[in-house]
Automatic annotation (TrEMBL):
Source taxon at top rank: Eukaryota
One Gene Ontology cellular component: nucleoplasm
The keyword Thylakoid is assigned to this record: no
Localization per record: Nucleus, Nucleolus; Nucleus, Nucleoplasm
Name assigned to this protein: Ribosome biogenesis protein NOP53
Listed Basic and acidic residues bias regions: 215-243
Function description: May play a role in ribosome biogenesis.
Similarity annotation: Belongs to the NOP53 family.
GO biological process: one example: ribosomal large subunit assembly
Biased composition (Low complexity): 244-254
Matching InterPro entries: Nop53/GLTSCR2 (IPR011687)
Length: 440
């Protein structure tokens, strides 16, 4: 009969039951816990302590050593490789591809073999004829004068003209030229020339649930603008009405004058009734200008010369005074420049803070394109339209219009006129008589 043993009888492990993960309860969980890994770890730590200490707690100097001498048994095992050396050492030692200069003595160039060489003409000297010609050239006397011609093209800007091959009849491909304005920065439409922010920061008065002081100030401001616009419109209408009335009055007067001119001379009053005597005897009493004498001209000339000399002396005196205190003037100018720079920096900070908010921008006179910048929508909720609930809130403004107007204001695009209908090409419908092409 076979002997029945448990799975952990001879292994020295703690007895344990089969893992049953579905069993619940704190007592069953404590009973079925597996402590095999913990026991193995403790056993390994005890073995390391017996051998000399825990390896993880030791320093690197106790565990490792640096071998600087090498193994002494390698030359005995591999004598051939040790004598020949490694290829890496050979490559490192070979520092230059040029061979070293040999130390043996070489024969001198003065020693000969006793054979006298044949005489040849020397080529390392200049003849008298060439020397005379070079002297003339140095003095500016040239035998052949070179005619200077003006260049037909700019050497640094455009390439040299190339003659076209007669066999090449195909036209060259012309690339589209990039306009100069593509390299320039966009021109802002603001009067001060500064770049407006892409998305301006709204103030508290633009909120759907604003505070009373901010909302009251903005409402008063917008009301004032509306009243001014209405006043201008009424004044323009009044001026137009006055102009029409004056034109009608002048037309009536012209008609009346024409009617009086057409009347007979007997119906009009006699011109002799208003006859005034002594009109022709009146003469102009204006004093006629007389011609200046030479003495008067000389006197005027001397006075002008004296005035110029006095002005020159005053300028020279002021210049000498400035030269004497030039250091003080330089210090004053430097101090003024510093103050001006500080003022400009403060103004720039204030302007940057103010420009980031939505406000009434002042546009420049000359705008881009033929059409003006579209007016900004009035994003204002009247007091009776203010709602306390977001459900009853009616949103104001249009993000698409705001972005388009921002692009126009920053000079990114040019203002255009909206064309609702595009002109279509005229088409004519015909019927082909294909039955005429039928052949038996």
């Amino acid at each position: 009969m076979p002997v029945l043993r448990s799975a952990t009888a001879g292994s020295g492990e703690a007895p344990k039951q089969f893992s049953q993960p579905s069993r619940k309860g704190k007592k069953a969980w404590r009973k079925n816990v597996d402590v095999t890994e913990v026991e193995e770890g403790l056993r390994e730590v005890n073995d390391e302590i017996i051998r000399g200490g825990v390896i993880r707690e030791k320093a690197s100097e106790d565990l490792f050593t640096i071998d600087t001498t090498g193994d002494s048994k390698i030359p005995q095992k591999f004598p051939k490789h040790v004598k020949k050396g490694l290829k890496a050492d050979e490559i490192i030692n070979k520092r230059s591809a040029v061979p070293a200069v040999s130390m043996r003595k070489r024969p001198s160039d003065k020693t000969t073999d006793g054979v006298v060489p044949a005489k040849r003409q020397r080529t390392d000297w200049v003849s008298h004829k060439d020397l005379a010609r070079l002297k003339k050239v140095a003095d500016g006397h040239h035998e052949n004068t070179v005619a200077v011609k003006d260049a037909t093209f700019d050497l640094w800007d455009a390439p040299a003209p190339v003659t076209q091959d007669p066999t090449d009849f195909l036209p060259e491909k012309i690339e589209a030229k990039v306009p100069k304005s593509m390299k320039l920065k966009p021109l802002s439409l603001l009067a001060n020339g500064k770049q407006a922010p892409a998305v301006p920061k709204p103030t508290g008065g633009y909120s759907y649930n604003p505070s009373f002081p901010e909302y009251e100030s903005r409402l008063a401001e917008e009301s004032t603008k509306a009243l001014e616009a209405e006043q201008k419109r009424l004044e323009a209408e009044a001026a137009e009405a006055a102009k029409l009335e004056a034109a009608a009055k002048s037309a009536a007067e012209a008609d009346a004058a024409e009617e009086r001119a057409n009347m007979s001379e007997w119906e009009e009053d006699s011109e002799w009734e208003g006859f005034q005597s002594g009109v022709e005897d009146e003469r102009p009493s204006a004093k006629q200008p007389k011609r200046k004498t030479q003495a008067q001209r000389n006197r005027i000339k001397r006075r002008k010369e004296e005035e110029q000399l006095a002005q020159h002396k005053a300028n020279m005196k002021a210049r000498r005074a400035q030269e004497q205190r030039i250091k003080e003037i330089a210090a004053e100018v430097a101090e003024k420049e510093k103050e001006k720079a500080l003022e400009l920096a403060k103004a720039a900070e204030q302007v940057s803070d103010a420009d980031s908010e939505i406000g009434e921008e002042k546009l420049r006179r000359r705008q881009l394109g033929k059409y003006k910048l579209p007016e900004k929508d009035l994003e204002l909720v009247l007091p009776d339209e203010l709602q306390e609930s977001l459900r009853l809130l009616k949103p104001e403004g249009n993000l698409l219009k705001d972005r388009y107007r921002s692009l126009l204001l920053r000079g990114k695009v040019e203002s255009r006129r909206h064309i609702p209908f595009k002109k279509q090409a005229k088409t004519k419908v015909t019927e082909k008589w294909t039955h005429k092409d039928f052949v038996l």
